[in-house]
């Protein structure tokens, strides 16, 4: 993956059913050969601010977990604090800190409260940037959308750290 240029696509929804429908459309578009998704999740944030991953397309779920490393990477890139709230391990923390610092330096600032406010849902996807426009347009029901370039190196380091800590993360999520 080192040669790919990646993009993070986020669609925000007031209606969680619309988010699920767009997620299914994304999967169908990929299956039909229209584009390739590196990873995608549907996140739902309840009125109290608690975030749940309600759907993910991770086919390589580590150790039979209900939530895979690929989904963790997508969440971590969109909102490092959301992953940090459930992740364990110094490696993940250090990488999330680096991503956060890099975003601040680049004025990247995906604001969780803007795109995943309490009581809303979001579809978050990582794609090769050549597919970014198609994937963003596929989020037909989204109330708002963003597309941002991401550092492939950050993606790969976060993916490795999550895979290395998969059992610990799954244990935390399931507890």
UniProtKB/TrEMBL annotation:
Membrane spanning stretches? 77-97
This protein's superkingdom? Bacteria
Keywords of the record: Membrane, Transmembrane, Transmembrane helix
Pfam families, from UniProt? DUF1269
Under the heading InterPro entries, the entry gives: DUF1269_membrane
The keyword Membrane appears for this protein? yes
Q: What is this protein's name?
A: DUF1269 domain-containing protein
Organism equals Microbacterium alkaliflavum
Lineage at the top is: Bacteria, Bacillati, Actinomycetota, Actinomycetes, Micrococcales
């Amino acid at each position: 993956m080192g040669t790919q240029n990646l993009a993070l696509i986020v669609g925000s929804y007031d209606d969680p059913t619309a988010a699920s429908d767009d997620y299914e459309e994304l999967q169908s578009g990929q299956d039909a050969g229209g584009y390739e998704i590196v990873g995608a999740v549907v996140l739902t944030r309840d009125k109290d601010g608690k975030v749940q991953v309600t759907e993910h397309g991770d086919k390589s779920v580590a150790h039979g977990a209900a939530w895979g490393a690929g989904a963790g990477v997508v969440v971590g890139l969109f909102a490092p604090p959301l992953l940090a709230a459930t992740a364990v391990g110094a490696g993940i923390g250090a990488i999330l800190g680096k991503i956060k610092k890099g975003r601040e330096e680049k004025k990247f600032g995906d604001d969780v409260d803007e795109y995943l406010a309490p009581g809303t849902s979001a579809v978050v996807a990582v794609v090769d940037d050549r597919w970014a426009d198609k994937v963003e347009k596929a989020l037909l029901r989204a109330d708002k959308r963003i597309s941002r370039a991401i550092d492939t190196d950050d993606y790969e380091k976060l993916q490795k750290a999550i895979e290395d800590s998969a059992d610990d993360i799954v244990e935390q999520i399931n507890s």
